[in-house]
Each structure stands twice: as C-alpha cells, then as structure tokens.
Amino acid sequence: MQITNEKIHTKIHEMVYSNVLFKNLFECMSTGIAYTNSEGQILHCNQAFESFLGYRTGDLFYTNILDLVQAEQKVVLHKELTDALDKTENPPKQILFIKNNQEEAYFQTEIKQAESIDNVPIFTILISNVLLTREAFGQEEQEESLFETIIKHSKDPIIISDAKPDGRVPDIIYANQAFCDMCGYTREEIIGNQPSMLGGTETNLNDLIKVVEAIKNEEEGVFELLNYKKDGTKFWVQFSILPLKNKEGKTTHWVAFEKDITKNKEQHDLLVESEAKYRSLVQNSSVGIYILNANGFSFVNKKLCEITGYSEEELTQLPLTKLIHANDYFRVHKQVQNRLLGINIEPDNNEFRIIRKDGVCRWLEAHGSRLIINGTPSIIGIITDSTERRESEEKIRKFSQAIEQSAASIIITNLASEIEYVNPAFINITGYKKEEIIGENPRILKTEFNEKNSHIEMWEALNQDKSWRGVFLNKKKNGETFWEQVVISPVFDSAGNKTNYVAVKDDITKRILLEEEKEKLIEELTISLNELQQFTYITSHNLRAPITNLVGILDLLEWDKIKDQTTLELLEGFKKSTLKINETLEDLIETLIIKSKSNLKYQNIQFHEVLNSVKQSINQIIKENKTQIEADFTEAPEYFLVKTYVESIFQNLITNSIKYAKPGVPAHIKIKSTYNKEGKLVLSFSDNGIGLNMEKIKDRIFGLYQKFHKNKDSKGMGLFLVKSHVHAMNGNIELTSEINKGTTVTIIIDK
Amino acid sequence: MLKNVMLVDDDDVTLMICKLRLKKSGFTEEVLSFENGEDAIKYFENQMLLPENERVAPELIFLDINMPVMNGWEFLDAFEEKYIQSFPHTKIKILSSSVDPKDEEKAHSNKRILGFVTKPLTNDNLLEIMQTDAFKNHFQNS
C-alpha cells in the first residue's frame, strides 16, 4: 500500500509539474487542493491547503484527511468520499477541521473523483474559507480538467492569453468568472480581445509601456493599472503576469493573476490627500500650533515661529526655561507636567509671558490636550499672542474707571438717542437711578429756558459728525434746575461708522451764580467809582478855584508899590506857599486825569521829537546844570504811544536826573530805545547821579509822595507819575540804582 | 483892544481878579460881569428890547462851567437857542477850574467855543487870544 501510494504520488507529481501552466496554478491558487486515495490518505497537496490548516509544506503528505477533521465530522467526510467513489454529486459542505495548533475551523469542502491512476481512483479535495455557490459551477464542469476547475472557481481574476511573435500584444484566450465579475464583460466579449481593452483615457501610458516591455522581453512582472469596466467605472488593478514556456523554452502563453485594488488605492489617496490638507491647515494656521512632550516641542507650525521669533529648528531645541519668562516658568512647567501625566489642571490661568528671540516680552495664551504619540505622552494644542488683547483690556479698564470716577457726568446714547450708559456722577447730579434712565431720551432733562437754537445747532453739528459745545439749563429728577456745560460728540467704530453719541457735562451752576454775583459787584463798584471820581473832580475844582484866585492876585500885585518891608516879606512868603499849593494840586489833578484814562490818544511817536520838545521846555535847568543828554533812538526810532504821557515820562525822568545829580557834577543822561526778543519796546534812562539805596526803598520807589532825598524841589510825584503813565500804556517799569553811581530806569511796553 | 468882554463866574473874587487882569493887559475897554448864567441870559434878553443899533454885543464871553442856578453849559444852550442870530459876532471861551476831562472835551466839540482856558487867567493867556485869527484885527493898532 505504501509503495502504491508513493507510486501514485510520483505520478501525480509528474502530472502536475509536467505542465507549467498547471504547476503555477496549483502552487499559486488561493484554494487549498489535496489529492487523496479512496481511504482519504493525502497523496499530494498545495501550499494553500497546508497553510489553511497551519502546516508547513510537505507536512501533510500521506496523512489521512479523516485525521484532520473533528471526530464527529469523520463520518460526514467518509460519506463524502464514498459518494465520490460512486460518482455521486454532493454540494460543498462545511466541515470542521482541526488545525495544527488544535484550533477548530470550518472550511468549505468539496470532494470529487478526478481520474484513476493505475486503476486506483484519485480524489480531489478542495477546501476554501469562502462560501462557494453552487450556481458558480458551470454545466460542463464534469468534463473539465482538474486545473480548469480550479481556475474557473478561483476567487482571483485570472486571464490566459496566447503569445504573439515579436512581443506583440497577445489576445485573451481564457478569462475566469472572477475576471468577468471584476470588469463586467461576458466571457464571449473578452475572448479574442487584447488585455488593453480595459484601458481608458486616464490610464497612465507609462504604466502600459512597462507592461508591453515585459511582454516583449518575455519576463514576469507585477504592475498596477487604471482600468475601466464595461459600464465605464474606473478601477485599479494589480496584476502579475507570467510567461508559460514549452520544452524548447519558447513562450506559448501568458497568464495574469489580477486583483482589484481600487479600495486600497482610494484609501491611500484619501490618506495622502487628507494628510496634505491637514499639514497645510496646520502650517498656514493663524494661531500657533505645537506638539510638546517632556523634552520640549516636537512640532511647531509657522505661526508659532512667527510669535516667538525663533525658527522651527531653534524652537524644537530650545529649553522652555529659555523661552518662558522667569516669573511664569514654574507655573507653566507644573501645568505641562500635570497635563503630560494626564492630571486635570485649572483651565483659567493659561496665559504666560515669553521672551522672544529679539528680547521682547510678549503675553501668550495656550490651550492643549493630552495625546500619546509613538508611545510618548505629549500635548497637542494652540498658542495665541494675547499681548494686544491684554493691552486693550487694560486700556479699557483704565478708561472705564476714569469714566466711572469722573466728576463730570457722562452719558452714552445710541443713534436713536436712547441712553445706554450713565456714570455715577450723572446719577449724583440728576437724582435719577440707573434703571430709570437707561433707554430714556436725554431730553427728559430739558427745560424751556434754553436758547431757542441750541438744540438745533447741536443736531446740525452731530449730523455733520462734529462735536458740539454749549450750555444747557437742565432739570433734575426733583425738578430743581441746574446749569451744565456740555460737550457732545459722535463715536465711531473702527470702520468709521457712527455708532453712538457721548455727552460729557459739567455742572456749572455754582460758577454761573458766582459770575452773576461778580457782575453785580462790578456794576456796583463801577457806580461807586464814578461817584467817587465826580466827587474828586468837584473837590479839586472847589479847592482849585480859590487857589487860582490867590495865584491871580499875586500876579496882579504891584510889588514896587509896597513900601513896608515887613509886609513885602510876608507877601513873599505868601506867594511861595501859594505857588507850592498850586503846583501840588496841579500834580494831583494830573494823576487823577491819568487814572480816569478817558483821553488816551495813541499815535506814532518819534522819540527824537519828544526829546527836543522836552529839552525846549526845561531849557533853563539844562543850561544851569550843564546837563549832557546822549540819546540813541536808531534801533527803535518810533512807537505807537500816547504823546502827553511820553512827554511827561521824558520830562520827569530827565528832571529827576538833573535834580539828583551829584553836587558839582553835571548830569550825564543816556537815553536809548530798542526792541527786546519778544518785539516789545524797551526805553532806558541812565544817569550818573547820587543814586538810591534800593535795599531800603524798593517797595516804595514808585509810590505817591515818596521822597528819598532832602532836595528842596522834591515833591515825591515824579516816579509815581511816570509809573502811572507807563501802566496806562500797558507797560512795565523797573528801576535799578547804586549809591553814588547812578540810576537806570527801564520801561518795557507791549505792542 | 476889544470894546466889550463879558465875564460869567459865580466867584466874585475871580470876577474881580479877571476884571483887573483884562484892564491891566489892555484887552478890553468894558467888562460886563455876571455871577451866573441866568443873569447873563437876562442881559441878552434886555438887549433885545433895545433897538438894534443901541444894543451892546460883547465880542468875547469868558464862561465858567460850575455855577449855581444856571451853569455854563445850560447858558450855552440857551444862548445858542435864542440869541445867537442877534449876536453873531460874540465868541465864547471857557474859563474854568474844572478838572473833569469831559468838560474840556465838550468845549472842544462845540464850534462856537474858541477854547478852554484853565484858571487863573494870566497875561500869557490873553496874549495868546490876541494873536488868534478871530481877534488879531482888534489889536493891530495897539
């Protein structure tokens, strides 16, 4: 028996391997094939059969197939063998096999009697783990050879073609059912055509050329091609082609094992596409995106590089201590550690400072979630630069605090004039509560006492996007009225659209009342002053009238007719005193007239003319004293002034210098006119006289009836008059002096 | 020398001094003096009763301002209203000790008023008047 079996095995071996086509089919098929004798002993089997059951090649030779099935199944299988021997046809059965590793598994099992070798019947046992339908079997099945059956029923699409000389494209001579199912053509449509019939417009020409090259060179190969089904649907196929050669080594046929890989291809493409999509999203994102593990950043996007100022390479190698501000590092480090360990962290404090590469400090805000990447705990998340947001928040906080604490009342309305906001000052001033006033129109404060046009003007300005400033008399909740100085301005958003109106209002009631009071007071004072002035005029007049009479009498007296010496002396005394009273009175009256300022006639004054006229009038004293006057009016020869005042100033100052010259030394007076930096006139009078002790008298120097010398002609009027004149012309006067050196008077007059 | 000069002043001492001064300076032959504006107006009133050729028209009036009963301005108004037609050659000069600048301004704004002299009336004042266009003819012989 043993010898018989070996003999048969050899025969089967020869049979299988004598034909190259069958050999390839036998070894490459995904269906397990075993040949047995009638007792079930395996005489030969292919790799697929052995690998289905978990054995290595050759392990199962001479093993009885009945020993490979589960105990209860042995009877079933035995019956199948018996039926096959009787050539009874049975449909394929599910048989429970026991694999090499003792696992149990069902396989679709079909047993047929193939042919006899040396009168010994041989059975073909096909097993597959795919359910085969009975319908798949053709009618001529019985007449088909063993290999034809295998090819026909293979789940792998297979075509066989002839071989043309010179490597021309061959014609298909066979296609199995799986191939027909794959491409949608019937066998009749396929047979006789070239395999390129499945090509289409989008089939890559280079791929086709490669196949043609392989055929020309009679080489085997594996290819991928885009093909088209009969209905036009595209599908990707992977196929291996194999030349079949005869004993002389000449290629007689080609066989192609094909596989529809459309789904793989699509999935791969989708994966590639979505990978590209996400990569681009991440790189071009307007927020910083990072992946962080315990060693630092393992990934950063472009935006994060921009935020930090570091390049991608620098950032992934930068220790966080160098990036994060020292004051925030400990907190951030702890948060990172906790997150990497999967511990929840408070989400509210995710802002921290960094030091950019350029040294600038910025605030960042980070979010992230834990993710295991290649076995490493990591954080993936986003980072945004929050510096500007923080700054503007800070600004808004300051502004709103300023508004809340402002003493001025502030109202914000929408464009329909409905109040949206009032500050506490508004509530204090008007007595309205916030909830009463929000949504109201500010006109509820309005009274009928305002100027008619003020509201119209206000709206005109606001409609032209301008601010309006004015005064309203408004009323409080309790009806009390109050004055408000108001500035109302339109508010614009960043796009330049008007969104609101804001009114800032100062309560000026007190000020208005004070002003009214002040005006009343000024009015009263003016009246009193006028009355006083009138009184002075009358007094002066009444005083003057008799004095002028005395002067007149003295003028008329014929002195040579008075013979009595004593009477003559008395009259001389009388004359002196009278003239003195008269002079004093004249000075006083002059002062009075300056004070009233009623006849200020400004005209263009030539200084040299003034000096000449003054010199003329005091010619006598100038001669007596041998006074020298050195005048320089070249820089400012003329000015717009009051002539009588200027003459008085010149006369008084020159006379003073002569009066207070050093005894025995003629007065030397320097007069100069010029302009200072501000364009004001500067007149200076300097002398070489006896001077004044400034320490003692500085406060009284320009006072009325202040005399600083025992000079008999001194009345104490001169400088007072000069000062009065200068002040009347909006000027200022200064005096500097040194004992025995001289005195300088400087007058500065505004334009 | 003028024929007639009228003095209107409430102060009798002033009247006396002025009269002496006018005489002494050889300014006029006759001096008509009145103590207030009303008396002066009465003089013109009386003159109007006389035939035209017997009327005495003063060539110059020295008029004070502050006077009781009728002050200088009131006299001026009355004179201009009633007698100016009949005494067209009579000139007026204010002689006052008023210190109110308004009085001087007012004097300058009136056409008929020749000027404003501050008391006392001096020889220099008179000499000046003699040289004015209005009167120089009267003094050419002297």
Describe the structure.
The complex is a heterodimer of chains A (751) and B (142). Chain A is α+β, with helices and mostly antiparallel strands. Chain A has six domains: 150 residues, 2-Layer Sandwich (Beta-Lactamase); 111 residues, 2-Layer Sandwich (Beta-Lactamase); 106 residues, Beta-Lactamase (2-Layer Sandwich), CATH 3.30.450.20; 97 residues, Beta-Lactamase (2-Layer Sandwich); 76 residues, no CATH class; 151 residues, Histidine kinase-like ATPase, C-terminal domain (Heat Shock Protein 90). Chain A has a five-stranded antiparallel β-sheet with strand order 2-1-5-4-3. A five-stranded antiparallel β-sheet of chain A has the order 7-6-10-9-8, with helices on both faces. Chain A has a five-stranded antiparallel β-sheet with strand order 12-11-15-14-13. The radius of gyration of chain A is 63 Å and the shape is rod-shaped. Chain B is an alpha/beta fold and 142 residues long. Chain B has one domain: 3-Layer(aba) Sandwich (Rossmann fold). Chain B contains five helices and five strands. Chain B has a five-stranded parallel β-sheet with strand order 2-1-3-4-5, sandwiched between helices. In chain B, α2 runs parallel beside α3. The N and C termini of chain B lie close together (7 Å).
